[in-house]
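[SOLVED] Need 3D model of a two-part complex

Original post:
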Amino acid sequence: MKRLLPLLLLLLTAGRLLAQTTTLTGTVRDAAGQPLPGVNVFLKTTFDGASTDTLGWFRFTTIQTGTLPLVASLLGYVAQEQPVVLDGKAHQISFRLKAVRNQLGDVIVTAGTYEAGDDKRNTTFSARDVQTTAGAQADVAGALNTLPGTTRNGEAGQLFVRGGAASETKQYLDGLPLQSPYNATPSGVPARGRFAPTLFKGTMFSTGGYSAEYGQALSAVVALRSVDLAEETQTGISALSLGGLTLARQQRWERSSVAVTADYMNMRPYFGLVSQRILRTMQAASGSVAARQRTGEMGMLKIYGTFQQQHMAVLTPNADYADGRQPVDLRNTNAYLNATWRTPLAHGWSLQTGAAATRDNQHIQPDQQRIQELEQSVVGRTVVTNDSASAYWNLKVGAEVLAQRYQFHYQARESDVTRALAFTERRATGFAESEIAFSNKVAGRVGARAEYSAVLGRWNAAPRAALAYQINQYSQLSGAWGYFYQTPTNDALRLGQYAPEPLRFERARHYQLTYQYEAHRRLLRLESYDKRYAHLVRYDLPGAFNPATLAYQLPSPATYRSTGTGYARGLDVLWRDKTTLRNFDYWVSYSLLDTRRQQHFDPVRAVPTYAARHNLSVVGKYWVDKWHTLFGATYSYGSPRAYFDPNRYDAVTGTGYNAGRLPSFQDLSLNLSYLTQIRKNFTIIHVSCSNILGRQNVFGYRYASTPDAATGRYTAVPLLPSARRMVFVYLLISINKNRPVDLHTAPED
Amino acid sequence: MKKVLFLLALATASLSASAQTKTTTATTQTAPAGYQGMMAAAIQELMQTGEPAALKASAATFERAATVAPQDWLPRYYQGYALLINVFQSQEEGDVKDKTLDQAEAALAQARKLGGDESELLALQAYIYQARLGVSPMLRSMKYSGMVNEAIAQAKKANPNNPRPYLIGANNAFFTPKMFGGGPEVAKPLYEEAKVKFEAFQPASAIAPDWGKGQLLSRLKNCNTALAAAK
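Solution:
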């Protein structure tokens, strides 16, 4: 018996073990009946289970007994449970998993938008593109000008989108509209963005059909998102061969950071080296402070302040002067303060709020004339968002208030009386928007925005909607529609506020259809659009029709009216490929634009002078690891733009308006960024040259205000770039004791 | 044979686990009997494989383990770790790797919610950032190298005795070329420092994070061969 017992025990246990082994097999399919690989099928509260193979098949054994739930789980699908009796027999079980419908991320409405930044992986345009695109000269607008939908205006430097004027593109910094996004320049000299691209971690550029979150833009929106905490404590020194020096210091603590910059520029030495047609003096000094503080687990408080002082003197083309050049002097002082706070709230809600104040004071003296423009504004905004993951939709609700004071002083000469014009605007805005996932393949966005403007004494309500359909894993079709309103610009309002019939908001209606294919770091995007303008401001020129008189005489307020109309339609194409050749990234963008409008003093509907019918940009970047160098090239083409030639214009019939055609615009720019070290400190050397082929681009003609006495014809002088080429070297040294120098990655700044 | 080995490992692991149950945290003690042993076996299996498919399977095992002990952070930690190592081993495209890293970060976030060891979680976070960087070094180096360093510094601060942040930091130096302030010469003392930390390190339990020593020793060996070859 004593010897039997262990044997018996052994047999018993073995028997029990055998009896308890249950084999579970089966398949897992999706709602459409397709097998799902990689599904984790297991008995809940045990380690027993298996993942399905490529045919959606699973098999495993278990020694558990009783009844346990069998779970099938895969990310992106609703997990399913089935109770299974574990009785030692083989069981076959099959599952059908439904995809989670709430994943708003499946289909994103992309109509009209170019996302840039490091947050989203499949960005069309990354933050570093701004700095490394040849010809962009490290300017946000310069880089965005290589995307479809834009027409490059070499004499303005700003963004002209889909037949819209520069004022129709509104820029936002951390959700707050920017009053003066560009630095001040006299007419004919290209402006640059006021903010350094290194301030931003991302940019959203929308060329139409944008969200109800954005207003006061008829054509486009550029939303800049500033960086959060400065990454590390470091000091930066940079020198620009054009005559600029920047010192930057950033200090990082665990939950906060402060970054300070000081910048001085004086191009006099450069002018001595490269003779200039227009520029005589270019001097600027600026400073900025950016403070960041993390609040709670996810909150972020940001304060950014900057101050800039600028002095420019130019000789601008003017046919009324004997040598064809008029001296213009410009002094500008700009102060900007922006404070924002974002934090999560309870129940999936989050809050974004902020306020910004701007003061821009500009004195401009075209020869004898004295013009002063002072604009001050304060804007505040609060937005709450619910991105609750369990819902099929999200909700965003916001309000914005603005107070603005604009003052304009004009003297024909120093001894003359001063004409003063001013207005005060108070604007209140509310908006609501929701993104809805109708199914895994269809998502939509509906929203509305309402504004009240005190200076106009009017309301507007702008409905907007977008719909996206995912054709397959790689491609998507989306459409957008909406109304967009904008208060007339300051120079229209300063006299227009006295119009007999109060002016209206200028209005645009957008329709657009987008096809996008994106796979393996290749992107193709086709977009067609139709834009209709209404209520554009119009006025009559004093005396006989000649726009050149505007420089000396203000139009009569009695002629201001909101009756202008226009249209723009076209096709935008973007192809970007980062895959085909190793270390080579290129994109081609083309836009076809058909536009006409009647605005301001236009006597008839005509093609505006800033629109080109065909626009092409080819951008390439090649990283040579061995030389630690990134090479870049950009070729830009713009078909002939229209200009006004008084000799061809017939005031009686209205024919021949804007009938002149400039030569086409062409530019080939090259740059390189070389990474090295100076005394073990990371150093970047940028070398950049625009218009390497030396083509003489013409930006327009400036006609005399009166015809030549002898010939009866108006004489003209061409508006040309200040110098044919712009060549510069930029040196940046980052002094950082903590980080080893890495020269094997392409530069970001 | 594999199964026998597995069972053997399971047995030894459960033995060593039962010997150390005293040191385990209160949360794991609520787990059903046998949990410690199963975990130990699953961890051992994870540490022995470098095969992408096996690593995915291992992550699935830990996902199951998380349903056994929903209050324990360790299954989620190892799930994240298995997915992360899968990214280093697999030959898949960047998009796929990023998706896997998304899952790894989701698991890490769950581990954090369950109140896991802060220093270990930060070390794993630093490792994940390194993997993100590796997906597209040209585009991401600037952003992620700072984040890697930051997470390492925080992990060291949370527990100066945790050897893993030292190892990850040393790896960073090792893979930076010599002429730019990295390389084996610079990395070697960092590995030595990590080695001291590893020798003094006692895991909190049989299933608490204890990986990295093997990697360290082989890297140190690589350092020495590289330095010898340079002479």
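Edit: The first helix of chain B runs from residue 2 to 20.
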